Amino acid sequence: MELKKQVGYEAAKLVKDGDIVGLGTGSTTLHFIERLGERVKEEELDIMGVPTSYQSFFLARDLGIKITTLEENDVDLAVDGADEVDPDLNLIKGGGAAHTLEKIVDSSAARFVVVVDDSKLVDKLGKMPIPLEVMPAAYRVVSNRLRDMGGVPSIRMAERKDGPVITDNNNFLLEVAFKEIPDPKFLEKELNSIPGVIENGIFSGYVDEVLVGTQEGVKVLK
Ligand code: 5RP
Fold first, then answer.
1. Among protein residues, the one whose CA lies closest to atom 8 of ligand 1
2. What start-end ranges are recorded for coiled-coil regions in this protein (predicted)?
3. Hey, which residues are catalytic here?
4. Ligand 1 pocket, 120 CB below 6 A?
């Protein structure tokens, strides 16, 4: 079985009847949500999902998973993907431009489980640039501040290259590369202290466990 599917299906086993489930975004959580939808039908599970994006909202809704919000319920278990995972279980997320709501939902969950294939494991964060959701009016001044911090920012363009990516919250997405990230927690706070930055894609200190899809089966990192 494809590794992303293997690990998504494994995570779907963690959901218990009555749970409020944070529904992550991306091609790995897609398998989690699909399998969860099957379990809801087969086992008549009484669960509700809190989506982290329009992608997960529409997917879950179409599969018959009841939807709720953080206004109404606390999340028991959140399952989400990641772009990079370091040995301390710090993450870079935002490959799908959904990291703002992902961080709100995932960090609020009683248990936050990450699902990745083994290509996402890194010794140190920073192989990919860090995504930052930025208010459109602020993107030039935020870019200047990022350069002052030693970063190399660029705006993420839509696939057709005819304009910038627009997030679910109607903002732009900057990506900033740093030569190294010695202290992810510090950088996460620093980036969020720039006026105009809504949220950055470093997730430090929120993860309870990581399920890793490998050719030898699913491994658990804690
Ligand atoms: C979206 C994310 C995704 O979870 C991350 O990009 C991983 O995606 P995939 O499972 O498709 O590799 O952070 O903002």
1. 26
2. none
3. 102
4. no
